């Protein structure tokens, strides 16, 4: 066969060294740009150490005694807490921290009929809206 190609770049371009007496300008430019870089005088970069995710301790976090007394130490959603406060204001429950399923049913039954003037005033007090009894009775 013929001469072997002088560079891999010439093989990619489809140009054999025997066909051209001098390499075309594109190939000579590519050879200059694609030359290997000398190794760094500082050496290789140290391998980065991966941080392990922080392990949480097995003991439960410290909670205040005041908060643990409320709701038997459990979390209550803010919407549920607001409903419990409304239940206390409307007179459905005596303690907003101790609300049972029957209390919730009584609270829902309350809204199936028109509210009394006392209930409207209680809800108005929750929202800082005050209306006189005459205004409520006229409506």
What does this structure look like?
The protein is mainly alpha-helical and about 140 residues long. The protein has two domains: about 1-35, no CATH class; about 75-139, no CATH class. About 40% of the residues lie in helices and about 0% in strands. The chain has helices at about 10-15, 25-35, 65-70, 80-90, 100-110, 115-125, 135-139. It is elongated, with a radius of gyration of 41 Å.
Shape, principal axes of CA atoms = elongated
Low-confidence region ranges: none
Helix count from the secondary structure assignment: 7
Distance between the termini: 108 Å
Overall structural class, as computed from helix and strand content, comes to mainly alpha
- Write down the overall mean pLDDT: 76
Largest sheet: none
Q: What's the β-strand tally?
A: 0
Radius of gyration: 41 Å
Strand content: under 5%
H/E series: HHHHHHH
Topology:
Layout: H1 8-13, H2 25-33, H3 65-69, H4 78-90, H5 101-110, H6 117-126, H7 133-138
Region (Disordered): 43-67
Summarize the structure.
With about 140 residues, this protein is an all-alpha fold. About 40% of the residues lie in helices and about 0% in strands.
Give the key terms.
2 domains, 139 residues
């Amino acid at each position: 066969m013929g001469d072997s190609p002088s560079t891999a770049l010439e093989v990619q371009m489809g140009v054999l060294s025997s066909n051209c007496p001098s390499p075309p300008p594109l190939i000579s430019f590519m050879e200059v740009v694609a030359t290997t870089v000398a190794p760094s005088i500082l050496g290789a970069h140290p391998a980065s150490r991966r941080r392990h995710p922080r392990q949480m301790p097995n003991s439960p976090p410290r909670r205040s005694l005041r908060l643990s007394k409320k709701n038997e130490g459990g979390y209550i959603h803010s919407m549920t807490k607001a409903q419990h406060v409304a239940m206390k204001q409307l007179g459905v429950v005596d303690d907003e921290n101790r609300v049972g399923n029957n209390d919730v049913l009584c609270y829902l039954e309350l809204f199936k009929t028109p509210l009394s003037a006392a209930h409207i005033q209680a809800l108005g007090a929750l929202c800082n809206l005050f209306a006189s009894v005459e205004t409520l009775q006229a409506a």
